């Protein structure tokens, strides 16, 4: 095991668990005063403390440059600050972490390669930096969330290209992909400038990216291959469906400042798409980061199924109002349970594999 990576991972997981607890506190399902104080930090804990740290750690581990560990170190420190009740310090540290991640991709562009996937992931890091800057400035959380969505969606799209699991498209198809990324960035910039109608264009771009990825991802083929390839393909195709759903809702409704439709849009994108992709890649990326073996077992489908069934309940509750209000509540709790179950399952698979080798 690569023990040097473990503290980063543990702080990321602390951010995840705190973020999930904060979400339940917002729904009135956790009454602890300490957890209730995190309720307004649900988004920053999930996006910055958990996902930002994981992405920074994965990049640092893949490149092997020591200075690259500054990015996950800063975001992990930001997570600690948020949990200690210092949101301003946490926001400053997260802004620094996003700048460090942007510097990593800039260095890769200068020193190693200028491949499309590197340019795309650099754009994703820039979106995180912009979102964190807006968060520090106290801009509306809906606007910050839009930039954080851009960060995660664009980064994941770039990673799919980098990992070679997107079939090699022709120049015209690649041009369409770049155009969708540009429209998404321009639309987010328009919203930032006060033209909230740009949110409709951002939604259309997200739906277009979902269609592009679903059409050109090799998951359409590997879903026929048993074992881990099929599992990953199911995760990714389900994720693309949620990306299309969230994008379509955003295109139709725009970006509400809060409320049930906002909840449906954000969680279709950040839970349905992002966590599907995390579930898909965990058995590949975590062994590379931690140096441990994580064998595939069909039991890993259980948290995946729970995630999507409960997210369907949640979104249905959001979009139908009082008629299915309990569905939103239990769907939200089910989302949290699915994430915890997934990581518990992954940990048990790693532990059982380690015990078998002894």
Please give a quick description of this structure:
The protein has helices spanning about 5-25, 35, 40-65, 70-85, 85-110, 115-135, 140-160, 170-190, 200-215, 220, 230-255, 260-290, 300-320, 325-355. It has about 350 residues and is an all-alpha fold. The model has no long low-confidence stretch (mean pLDDT about 85).
What labels would you give this structure?
358 residues; mainly alpha; 14 helices
Percent helix, as a range, is: over 70%
Inertia-based shape = globular
Unreliably modeled segments: none
Class by helix and strand content?
Answer: mainly alpha
Strand percentage: under 5%
Q: Give the mean pLDDT.
A: 87
The secondary-structure element order is: HHHHHHHHHHHHHH
Give the beta-strand count: 0
Major β-sheet profile: none
- What's the Cα radius of gyration? 19 Å
Termini Cα gap: 15 Å
Number of helices: 14
Explained architecture:
There is one protein chain. The chain is an all-alpha fold. Helices cover 79% and strands 0% of the residues. It contains 14 helices and no strands. It has helices at 6-26, 33-36, 42-63, 70-83, 87-111, 116-136, 141-162, 171-192, 198-216, 219-222, 228-253, 260-290, 301-320, 325-357. The protein starts with 5 loop residues before the first helix and ends with a helix. The model has no long low-confidence stretch (mean pLDDT 87).
How are the elements arranged and paired?
Layout: H1 6-26, H2 33-36, H3 42-63, H4 70-83, H5 87-111, H6 116-136, H7 141-162, H8 171-192, H9 198-216, H10 219-222, H11 228-253, H12 260-290, H13 301-320, H14 325-357
Helix pairs in contact: 1-3, 1-4, 1-14, 3-4, 3-5, 4-5, 5-6, 6-7, 7-8, 7-12, 8-9, 9-11, 11-12, 12-13, 12-14, 13-14
């Amino acid at each position: 095991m690569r023990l040097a990576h473990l503290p980063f991972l543990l702080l990321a997981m602390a951010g995840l668990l705190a973020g999930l607890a904060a979400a339940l506190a917002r729904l009135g399902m956790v009454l602890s005063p300490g957890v209730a104080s995190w309720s307004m930090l649900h988004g920053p804990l999930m996006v910055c403390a958990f996902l930002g740290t994981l992405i920074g750690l994965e990049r640092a581990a893949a490149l092997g440059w020591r200075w690259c560990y500054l990015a996950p170190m800063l975001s992990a420190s930001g997570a600690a600050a948020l949990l200690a009740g210092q949101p301003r310090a946490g926001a400053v540290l997260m802004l620094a972490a996003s700048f460090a991640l942007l510097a990593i991709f800039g260095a890769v562009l200068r020193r190693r390669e200028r491949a499309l996937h590197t340019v795309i992931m650099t754009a994703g890091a820039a979106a995180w930096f912009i979102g964190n800057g807006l968060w520090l400035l106290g801009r509306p959380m809906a606007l910050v969330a839009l930039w954080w969505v851009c960060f995660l969606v664009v980064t994941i799209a770039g990673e799919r290209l980098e990992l070679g699991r997107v079939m090699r498209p022709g120049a015209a198809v690649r041009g369409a992909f770049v155009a969708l990324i540009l429209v998404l960035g321009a639309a987010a910039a328009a919203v930032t400038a006060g033209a909230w109608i740009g949110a409709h264009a951002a939604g259309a771009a997200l739906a277009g990216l979902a269609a592009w990825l679903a059409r050109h991802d090799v998951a359409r083929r590997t879903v026929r291959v048993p074992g881990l390839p099929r599992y990953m393909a199911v995760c990714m195709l389900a994720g693309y469906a949620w990306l299309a759903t969230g994008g379509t809702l955003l295109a139709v409704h725009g970006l509400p400042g809060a409320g049930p439709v906002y909840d449906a849009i954000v969680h279709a994108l950040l839970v349905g798409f992002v966590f599907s992709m995390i579930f898909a890649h965990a058995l590949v990326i975590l062994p590379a980061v931690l140096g441990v073996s994580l064998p595939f077992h069909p039991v890993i489908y259980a948290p995946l199924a729970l995630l999507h069934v409960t997210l369907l309940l949640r979104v249905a509750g959001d979009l139908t109002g009082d008629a299915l209000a309990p569905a939103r509540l239990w769907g939200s709790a089910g989302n949290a349970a699915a994430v915890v179950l997934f990581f518990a399952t992954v940990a048990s698979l790693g532990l059982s594999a380690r015990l078998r080798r002894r």
